[in-house]
Write a structure and sequence with these properties.
Elements: E1 2-11, E2 14-24, E3 29-34, H1 40-48, E4 55-60, E5 66-68, H2 81-86, H3 90-103, H4 110-125, H5 131-141, H6 158-170, E6 176-180, H7 188-200, E7 204-208, H8 212-218, E8 221-226, E9 229-234, H9 237-254
InterPro entries: AAA+_ATPase (IPR003593), ABC_transporter-like_ATP-bd (IPR003439), ABCF_ATPase (IPR051309), P-loop_NTPase (IPR027417)
Protein name: ATP-binding cassette domain-containing protein
Keywords: ATP-binding, Nucleotide-binding
């Protein structure tokens, strides 16, 4: 689903990483790890297309819908919590607004009627009729009560805004889900709910996290950024750790 070919990134001529060749496929969860400053969040931005690499390329299959955990807590201040979550599928949200505008007209033309039928068909295909109930289920799973679902984001506490943005990323069954430290500001119940959600998620998950227990629970692969290299290991965090320790011991013994 995502193919990384001969990827490299350098700052001021100094390589952060180079000659990276990886594949991220459907049904797997990849945890990106590394020391502070190793380039974990930067690598995630390159995968998402937010940042251009110095060399190489990232290829994503056509018609793939990608969802990325947003970091700007105030970007949706003028919207309700519900609208913010549904914007996780921007096309679905836009169709909903187009429909509202058409049906708000005092008189609809024949052209308006044809357009409305087309929108209704696409709306149904994208799961529009279940959108609010799906969004509500995710919000409740993350600990945001129903009573807040139609509050304006500007009036929502900062810690809860983080949860709303996480709900936005999870909404709408994306093909690829990318998240940077998604367990920040989550209580244990919300983390457990998120783990269950991701274990059932059929697409590709790529996540940066310092939470070892979280990585152990959800990851099928570990992507380790270390000494300007990026390597992928099959297994969860503990499997990677045991393998890395074994490798270090072998290298010591050889020296």
């Amino acid at each position: 689903m995502i193919t990384v070919t001969d990827l490299g990134l350098a700052y001021s001529g100094q390589p952060l990483f180079s000659h990276v060749d990886l594949q991220f496929v459907k049904g797997n969860c990849y945890g990106i790890i590394g020391a502070n400053g190793a380039g974990k969040s930067t690598f995630l931005k390159i995968l998402s297309g937010e940042l251009e690499p110095t060399s190489g390329e990232v290829s994503i299959l056509p018609r793939t819908r990608m969802s990325i955990l947003k970091q700007d807590q105030n970007a949706y201040n003028q919207y309700t919590v519900m609208d913010t979550v549904i914007m996780g599928n921007q096309r679905l949200y836009d169709i909903g607004k187009e429909k509202e505008a058409l049906y708000a007209k005092e008189e609809m033309t024949e052209e308006d009627g044809i357009k409305a039928c087309e929108l209704e068909e696409e709306y149904a295909e994208l799961g529009g009729w279940e959108a609010e109930s799906d969004a509500s289920r995710i919000l409740q799973g993350l600990g945001i009560p129903v009573s807040m679902h139609y509050d304006v984001m500007e009036n929502v506490d900062g810690r809860l805004k983080v949860k709303v943005l996480l709900a936005q990323a999870l909404f709408g069954s994306p093909d690829i889900l990318m998240m940077d430290e998604p367990t920040n500001n989550l209580d244990i119940n919300a983390i457990n709910w998120l783990e269950d959600f991701l274990l059932d998620f059929p697409g590709t998950v790529i996540v940066v996290s310092h939470d070892r227990h979280f990585l152990n629970t959800i990851c099928t692969h570990i992507v380790d950024i270390d000494y300007n290299k990026i390597k992928m290991y099959v297994g969860n965090y503990d499997f990677w750790y045991d393998a890395s320790q074994l490798m270090q011991n072998l290298m010591k013994n050889q020296n």
